[in-house]
Amino acid sequence: MNQAIIDKVTKHYMESGDFNGYPVYALKKQFHVNDETAKELLRDLIQARHIDVVFGNIHPNPHIKAFSDTTAEKQIEFLEELEFGEHFCLYPSRETLAKAKLSENLSDTPYTEQLALGGGQLDFRVFDLSVLEYYRNDPRYYYQTDFINGQISVTDEYLESALMAEHDQVLLQTFGFAHDEDLNRGVAVFLRYLSDLSPEHQKIWKSKELSGDYQLHPDYLRNSMGHWGTKMSIFEAFNEEMLVINEMAALIGKPSLFKNTYQHDYPRNFGFLLRPTLSEFNAFVLLLDQLMSDNLNQKFFTPELALEEDHPREDGKVEVIRKGTIALLDEWVNHYFRPQESEPLERMLASFRKVRKLRQKPAHSVREDEFDQKYFHEQRSLIIDAYGAVRTLRLVLANHPRVRGNPPEINEFLYEGKIWTV
């Protein structure tokens, strides 16, 4: 009977279309066994490493094998503790599948093959960030990420269209991120979603797969299990701060401090670098300065401040020059806000100036592009400083009497500073 059960479970797994488990109620019905006998059979088959048993206490849906790392000892422990019911499923073990005859077509789909060989559907693989460039830089794809979760799909114009090869019309329902102990980042994707890619795109991803010890982003794992996250991405938080600042400006009776904000559709390159090169780093610096200094609305500072000032020239004549946005911000904040400690304001303004200086540097350089992992870390440090600057600016405006009397609603994560910087 044991071999017949193994064969039935394996056949069901391979022919289900989605590598599903064989329900225990089907086992009892087909082999005419009661709960006690079924329990003894399963205990023997698990110990002999012929089958795995998946219970709903690990993942709410036992009809998929979510993870492949539940030991035989743990499975037997669950089997003994659980009141024997009908809400769990049987799967062929990796050892059983290693001996099974697989479809020859699976060799063209490496991640589907890994599922066929017993991989867990929520086992994840990690890839070089540059694999995302293929989709981010191609306007035929809808590429979205908050750098915790992400999604890739084909735009409506090209979906099921002869204008795009069928094997390129892929959907990656979800991807996330992972990092090693040195905070080197990678793209993380579950086997379930990798296996849905076309053979051509599975091979593209396979060529970018990384080895090593990577930790899945904690909130991506929580979200994937149907739970709320515990923090927000620093890039999402950056934009949220600007939105709140503009709400505060309206309460004060002023025009928006930032000319442009983004509710959801952020600029494509506003996020962690996908490739650690000087040119990518410089492009990010340019974008960041456009969101900070270039984005400051001079109308906010009038009529309290003059937008121009006289500048004596060497020839004795006076030249009227327009004040820069950072100079206006410096003048306005220091005129209207008197903190007990000046250091936070100095650090805020220094961050605005640092980004502006870094933006100007490439314009005066003929330095060629280079590839260096340091740019990942330099960018992370820069966005942390930049976020700190806009957060401090929001805290400054929060002290205005009209804002204190009627404060805008602020996201709980933003208010408490629960921000992911990885």
What does the model show?
The protein has 422 residues and is an alpha+beta fold. Helices cover 43% and strands 13% of the residues. The strands form four sheets. Strands 4, 5, 6, 7, 8 and 9 form a six-stranded antiparallel β-sheet that branches. The longest helix has 24 residues, at 374-397.
Q: TL;DR of this structure?
A:
With 422 residues, this protein is α+β, with helices and mostly antiparallel strands.
Question: Features of this protein?
Answer:
alpha+beta, 6-stranded antiparallel sheet, 3-stranded antiparallel sheet, 43% helix
* Order of H and E elements: HEHHEHEHHEHEEEEHHEHEHHEEHHHHHE
How many angstroms separate the termini? 52 Å
Low-confidence stretches: none
Largest sheet: 6 strands, antiparallel
The proportion of residues in beta strands is 5-15%
Return the structural class: alpha+beta
Helicity range:
40-55%
Give the averaged pLDDT, no decimals: 91
Principal-axes geometry comes out as elongated
Number of helices: 17
How many runs of DSSP E, i.e. beta strands?
A: 13
Query: Mind telling me the C-alpha Rg?
Result: 28 Å
SSE topology sketch:
Layout: H1 2-15, E1 22-23, H2 24-31, H3 35-47, E2 51-55, H4 72-81, E3 88-92, H5 94-99, H6 110-116, E4 124-127, H7 133-136, E5 141-145, E6 150-154, E7 172-179, E8 185-190, H8 191-194, H9 199-207, E9 215-216, H10 218-224, E10 232-233, H11 234-252, H12 278-291, E11 308-312, E12 318-322, H13 325-336, H14 343-363, H15 374-397, H16 401-405, H17 412-416, E13 419-420
Parallel strand pairs: 10-13
Antiparallel strand pairs: 1-3, 2-3, 4-8, 5-6, 6-7, 7-8, 7-9, 11-12
Helix pairs in contact: 3-4, 11-15, 12-14, 12-15, 13-14, 14-15
